[in-house]
Amino acid sequence: MAKVTLESIAAKMGVSTVAVFKALNDQKGVSEELRKKIKAYTKSVGYVNKSSRFGISKKRFLFFINQDFFLTPSEQFYSTIFYFLSTECNQANSILQVSFVEPEHTLEKLKSAIAAFDPDGIFFAYEVGSDILGYFESLSIPTVVIDYFSPIYSCNYVYVDNYQVSYMLTKYLISKGHTKIGFVGDIRKTSAVADRYFGYVKALKESNLPVVDEWHINENIERSKDMIALPTTGMPTAFVCHCDSAAQRLYTMVTMKGLKIPEDVSIISFDNTSLCDSLMPKLTSVGPHKDTYAKKAFAVMVEALKNKHTNVQIKSHLVERDSITTIV
């Protein structure tokens, strides 16, 4: 028996899928007569509306994110997750509104936005400070933190194990014959970068390879106005970059030094954003599927609305492109 979908219902009723969606979710835009017909037909064929299956409808959600991370034109990591998450909310007859936060007076601005919007649930993307996590923990509003985890505060988390993924990336470079491997990223800025650095260190030490301080460019070079100097002692044959934008900047730095990618320097990075395919050569990167990230985050929110506490670790996928060479 063919699966019953919005599209098959729409074809049977001679209307658009939008009309079917609006009818099933009691939205404006269809007549009451048509609404009743569509609901009667869907009931007769056993179709389960997604919002009914989730047990939620007409909810209001806030998505907090630092504006710089959301609107960076080259990388669209968080904006892509927001897009898919918004789609999940729409399909459950609910709305998702983005609210930008800034480094200064963040908690006060969060409180103001929450008071103004009165959400049923809150999503917060990226690393969260202890003051904010403590505030979220005290709220009666379900909160899901995306792309960060803290064992201290009992929020709901959907995150990537940056330590293990970086360990895997570095081992991948070692398997390609690289023994002189550098790292790009400021471990003082976020725990995500620090976790990636220490995963890299573990892989090197496990393989009895040197961890050379000068090979660690301890800066988020993608945000630096000045061009950071590359190592002057024994240039690495490969770099692990903490994100795709940092890799893009490293491309420029390496090229200005008269070196070629990947013939002289191989580069690998995190997040696997759309930027990877626009670079020449195309960038090898690791990251989660953004639609999966959003679906998992929404599923965790559904459980949180039922007063269930959930932590979900998202799997990352390595996409091999052209920025890595094998040393024989």
How would you describe this protein?
This protein is α/β, with parallel strands linked by helices and 328 residues long. It has three domains: 6-47, 434 Repressor (Amino-terminal Domain) (Orthogonal Bundle); 60-160 and 289-315, Rossmann fold; 162-287, Response regulator (Rossmann fold, 3-Layer(aba) Sandwich), CATH 3.40.50.2300. Helix content is 42%, strand content 16%. The chain is built from 13 helices and twelve strands. The strands form two sheets. The chain has a six-stranded parallel sheet with strand order 2-1-3-4-5-11, with helices on both faces. The chain has a six-stranded mixed sheet with strand order 7-6-8-9-10-12, with helices on both faces. Helix 8 (130-138) links the parallel strand 3 and strand 4. It is elongated.
In a nutshell, what does this entry contain?
The chain is an alpha/beta fold and 328 residues long.
Label this structure with key terms:
six-stranded parallel beta sheet; alpha/beta; Rossmann fold; elongated; 3 domains; 434 Repressor (Amino-terminal Domain); six-stranded mixed beta sheet; 328 residues
- Beta-strand content bin: 15-25%
Q: Write the CATH fold name of the largest domain.
A: Rossmann fold
Q: What is the chain-wise order of helices and strands? A: HHHHEHHEHEHEEHEHEEHEHEHEE
Annotated CATH homologous superfamily of the largest domain: Response regulator
How would a textbook summarize the main sheet?
Answer: 6 strands, parallel
List how many beta strands DSSP finds.
12
